Amino acid sequence: MWAIIAILIVAGAIFFMEVPKLKKKKQIKDMWYVIILLALATAATLYESTGMETPNPLDFIQSVYAPIRSWFQN
Amino acid sequence: MGNHTISPRQFMYLVILFTVGSSILIIPTPTAAMAKQDAWLSVLLPVSAGTLIIWFLSTFGRQLENKTFVEAAIFAFGNWFGRLLSFFYLSFIFILGALVLRNIGDFMTTQIMPDTPLQFTHILFLLVVIFGARQGLEVIGRSSEIFIPWIFLLLFFLFFSISPQINLDNLQPILGGGIKPILSSSLTYLGTPLLEMVIFLMVFPYVKEKKKAGRAWILGALIGGLILTLVTLFSVLVMGSDLTALNAYPSYELAKKINLAGFLEGVEIIVAIIWMLTIFFKLVIIYFACSLGTANFLNMEDYRPLLLPTGMGMVVLSIVAYPDVAYFEAFLGETWFLYALTHGMLLPLIIWAGFMIKRAHTESS
């Protein structure tokens, strides 16, 4: 519970640090990119903080390279 | 993007710091496990072979002129396929950044601050890194000039004060296991700092005097490699190959063994400054390259707004990246070399070929 609140506070702080500056400079496209990336990062952090099994990119990389590796070792 | 440029000398310092950072903790264990007493040879061998890789990368960097790697990929392969290739490149940098962050986090939690949760070590360390990356490349280059004498001083102190405990018998028999274990364990060094050098193709456009910078790159990689060879050599000389292979952090264990006449002891934390500083610089470069690359990828005007969101993602990835050290060692030993080979050698080769064809094409028409 506390973790979720802390993450939301941090995400909000980042939002108010970066987004108004970009809006002022009229870089609307850049602003949306930052918002999207921030939303993705926040979602990932929230998902991880609930303690659910998070998909691990390293597992994915290992499964991709497994056939090459076995071919390499022979 | 901004007016940041660095001199070839600063670039060389950054390459040295990048090579030593985190590899100083990682390299001795697997090489000593595989090549036993010849572990130092399995670091020295790829250092010399790696010159060829660096030579290729620096030639490529010079041909790119003022384009970063991501811009070159988009220039050569068009908006969609070029972006797909850059995506692989950026994900490689991002994953590497998370792993390097986890290295220092693991070190801190297992050796120095066992009660602090991993997340907080990561967040605190990354905050400093973000601050550094926000200042831009010029500041990073200048601070490397300040810190490099400290790195050399501390390394000299480590080697000097451990030298009374050297036991030359630990090195014998030289080449006792034949050449094969040395060759297979040299892949570790090739994968860990050498093939990661591709990241500098994001920094290279901002270095002045490209010709000198290319030489500085090769020289920096050589100096960094020699430092790592010495660290591995001293670990084996003092502790023997078995103990080096068993320890998670042989370089830290080496520093713990410092004992000058029963007077100077327990200075390991001072020596640990070496990897705190080098890992900091490695992470700053990775971080700069990653956010600058993402900004190029998205056609943004400045990379700075991306720093904080990227940091959030990196902390999460560094936590979920591996459940325990055994998983990491297996990953490093089995998959990392291939992963780094495809992203650090194959990908730049493809982009280089495409870039040369495209450039010749635009010049003729």
Provide a concise account of the structure shown.
The complex is a heterodimer of chains A (74) and B (365). Chain A contains 3 helices and no strands. Chain A has helices spanning 2-24, 28-49, 57-73.
Describe this structure in words.
Chain A is 84% helix and 0% strand. Chain A has one domain. Chain A is mainly alpha-helical and 74 residues long. The model of chain A has no long low-confidence stretch (mean pLDDT 84). Chain A is built from three helices and no strands. Chain A has helices at 2-24, 28-49, 57-73. With 365 residues, chain B is mainly alpha-helical. The two termini of chain B are 29 Å apart. Chain B has one domain (8-358): Amino acid/polyamine transporter I (Up-down Bundle), CATH 1.20.1740.10. Chain B is globular and about 70 Å long. Chain B has a two-stranded antiparallel sheet. Helices cover 77% and strands 1% of the residues of chain B. The longest helix of chain B is centred in the N-terminal third of the chain and has 44 residues, at 69-112. The A-B interface holds A 10-11, 14, 17-18, 21-22, 27, 29-30, 33-34, 37-38, 40-42, 44-45, 48, 54, 56-58, 61-62, 65, 68-69, 72 and B 91, 95, 294, 298-302, 305-306, 308-310, 312-313, 315-317, 319-322, 331, 334-335, 338-339.
Strand order of the largest sheet of chain B: 1-2
Number of continuous helical runs of chain B: 14
Number of E strands of chain B: 2
Please indicate the count of domains of chain A. 1
Give the ordered list of helices and strands of chain A: HHH
List keywords for this structure.
heterodimer, A: 74 residues, mainly alpha, elongated, B: 365 residues, Amino acid/polyamine transporter I, two-stranded antiparallel ribbon, 2 strands, 77% helix
What is the topology?
The complex is a heterodimer of chains A (74) and B (365).
Chain A: H1 2-24, H2 28-49, H3 57-73
Helix pairs in contact in A: 1-2
Chain B: H1 8-20, H2 23-26, H3 28-35, H4 39-64, H5 69-112, H6 118-135, H7 137-162, H8 180-194, H9 210-246, H10 250-256, E1 259-260, E2 264-265, H11 268-271, H12 273-297, H13 307-320, H14 325-364
Antiparallel strand pairs in B: 1-2
